[in-house]
Design brief:
Blueprint: H1 3-41, H2 49-80, H3 96-101, H4 109-122
Helix pairs in contact: 1-2
The structure holds zinc ion.
Amino acid sequence: MSLNRQKILARNVEILESETHRISKEMTRGAEVAIAERSTAIGVEDDGGWEASREDSDAGINAAQNCTIKQIENAKQAIRDNVYGICETCGKNIPTVRLKEYPYATNCKPCQEEEEVRANEWR
Ligand SMILES: [Zn+2]
């Protein structure tokens, strides 16, 4: 393994750790804000339509965060298993450039793209 690659892997381990903290903090704060908003809304006449759409958008944000957390957890698991930087699908080394750009990457670009195509076909 080249020194450059080792450096990037070490850097990514740190990024993944700090991202986990940042997102979990954000999610806690988001939940607190939602609770605060709900309690100030008590006693206000409402047909319920506004509340419903509001909750929909909250759910969307949480889903996106959950997805990122899942990716981070996958990457961290790969680090623990000593397979971080190796594509889950084809078993080849994920190029350093890609790891630099996407610290959560657990697939190489061609495999990721193939997966996205498959995901689109399901829609
Ligand atoms: Zn691959």
